[in-house]
Amino acid sequence: MKRTPYLLALVCLGAALGLAGNAVAGDRGDRVEHRMERHGERIDRRLDHRGDRIEARSDRHAQVLAAHGHARAAARVDRHGERAEARLDRRGDLAEARWERRGERYDRRWDRRH
Q: Which of 49, 55, 57, 107 has its CA 20 to 30 A from that of 66?
């Protein structure tokens, strides 16, 4: 009889920790999803910045060539910059699709376990 309050307190503590564990598991899923979104955004920003630098460099080079009377060379450099920009866009789209698939796999696995 003397141990009943202690056992009851222990059972209540165990139940509270069990509920807290489920809440923490949900928070962890949200944290992981947020982290994956941030990582995808960093990839997009990096590729956009790189594309902008390449485009600006090719535009400057094409303008210099055009100013010196080399129209064909300027057009070639401009096409090169456009191709590089398109390549980076494709690369960004592929990276985004890969992150989407990875997130979907994580969600499916998370849903099965919790």
A: 49
Burial 7-24 (b: 16+ CB within 10 A, else e): eeeeeeeeeeeeeeeeee
Each residue's pLDDT tens digit, 77-109: 999 999 998 998 899 889 888 888 888 887 787
Position of tokens 């944290």? 31
Rg (CA), the chain: 28
DSSP secondary structure letter of residue 2: T
Following DSSP, what letter does each residue of 39-97 receive, concatenated? HHHHHHHHHHHHHHHHHHHHHHHHHHHHHTT-HHHHHHHHHHHHHHHHHHHHHHHHHHH
| Single-letter amino acid, residue 98 | R
What is the residue extent of each domain of the chain?
4-113
Q: Which helix (H) or strand (E) holds 107?
A: helix 71-113
